[in-house]
Structure prediction request, 404 residues.
Amino acid sequence: MRISSLLLILIFLTGTVSSCGDDPDRRGDEADSPTAQRPLTITDSILLGPGEQVHVGEPYNMVVDHGGSPSAPHRDIWISDSFSNTIFRFDPDGSLRARIGQAGPGPEEIQSLSLIVLRDPDLVGAFDAGGAVKWFDRESGDFSHAHTWQRTEVGRSQPVWSQGEGESFVVSALDFRGATSLAYLDLDTGEWEFGGVLPAPHRASVLEGTGGFAAFFGVTNITELAPDTLFTLVWGAHDIAYTYDVVRRQMSPLGEVPQRFRRNSDPDLPDLFNQIGWMPDDGLGLTLSSFAQGVWTLQDGRIAVVHSDLDGEGTPPAVHIWSSSYLTVLDPTRDEACVDLGLPGGSEVRAHFDVARDTLFILDRRLPQTLEDTSDDLETWLLKAPVPSMDDCPAAHRASGWLH
Prediction:
């Protein structure tokens, strides 16, 4: 079960989810805490789809298109909405440019939309729960063709394109049959290959347990560390980072992402989730683990990692849920890290992030703030905040020795 599926369960049980308020620079509940330092500064806030009545009901994936070059200025903003099974395309100024895709089980329709893939310069792909990656023309929105695939739970990380001959990419995909975490698609042949061994607790959950722990926490975050080398991060028991050699199909431990102010994970998490019929004390399990939202490679080779913590108050079905998000920046060359910087923006449960040109983009939806607030107003903003250098990291957030 992917992260969005877990949140859908929470939303179904609670009926109410909170996000940020009307102020684009709202700091969240920890703003006054002496430990929650927030050196990131919002340099721009863009209202998406002004006057277009754009409602992104269940955002699964956000991609800031920079034309394949991390150093290029961002172009369009792409968001996949699992609720409407629609891909939204926005101009850099936030204007709605297109809605792509139509909900349905047909060969040219989308059901349970998840990851989107930008295939420059003409096509955008949509991962479909029906067992296909469906490709659409970026400009007209017309259906082009599809690649069928064995259904697995895909993550939110953008696929990493292979540097070898032909067109192929690697995508984060949890496959229970082989207890693996990655999938490869050869676009020339349409053939899939699965690989990438899961960490020991996730693998044991699949092969020896009920699979519950792996189902909730087995989706991998990936980014390109070097040509044909991936940085991979699987969250759950611990946030263990690996390198993965795409050519040799070899995974090697790299280190453990440090934790300072975020929640991290309950050490008993694997055993708890593998028990048949187990249910957390609050009925929701909000406080059991931080959610690893994504990883990205910066221009100087550092790795940006975003986590979110969920919290709630009340009892089902009327529970007020919010999140706090944190940025960690890892420097593999110096074995240093800037850990758990509090992120600006609101407390969006369905928080989504992307990094382009060393700028963190934050999808920030303005939802009602309390259970009593029944207003229908909903705005979707995109916030931009430059990722700080290691020299700008506050002393309380500095760490070293995270590499194995």
Observations:
- The chain has four helices and 26 strands.
- The chain has one domain: 3-400.
- The longest strand covers residues 318-331.
